[in-house]
């Protein structure tokens, strides 16, 4: 699959699920445990930090499988952080579009 053929609508679907968990909490949901943690946003930021380090180490070790796995974790936790801060993916897309030229 070429980069231009990648279906990134999955990011929108995951974002929507996270948003739904924020609006309609589900018991024993991992997303809800992050969004409602007693540490507040710090718990989500800790996870982003953890996943960032794991991604960097995977790249440093040149382990393709781990790079994909850890990058997926990082993207997921970034989506949780965006939802927690009421930032829409369209805002990120708009910013990236501005930088494209």
Record keyword descriptors for this entry.
single chain, 101 residues, mainly alpha, 5 helices, globular
Provide an overview of this structure.
The protein is an all-alpha fold and 101 residues long. The chain is built from 5 helices and no strands. The longest helix is centred in the C-terminal third of the chain and has 21 residues. It is globular, with a radius of gyration of 15 Å. It starts with 8 loop residues before the first helix and ends with a helix.
Please outline what is shown here.
The chain has helices spanning 9-23, 30-35, 41-60, 64-84, 89-99. By secondary structure, it is an all-alpha fold.
Number of helices: 5
Strand segment tally: 0
The helix/strand series, from N terminus to C terminus, equals HHHHH
Helix content: over 70%
Which segments are poorly predicted (pLDDT under 50) over 5 or more consecutive residues? none
Chart the SSEs and their pairings.
Blueprint: H1 9-23, H2 30-35, H3 41-60, H4 64-84, H5 89-99
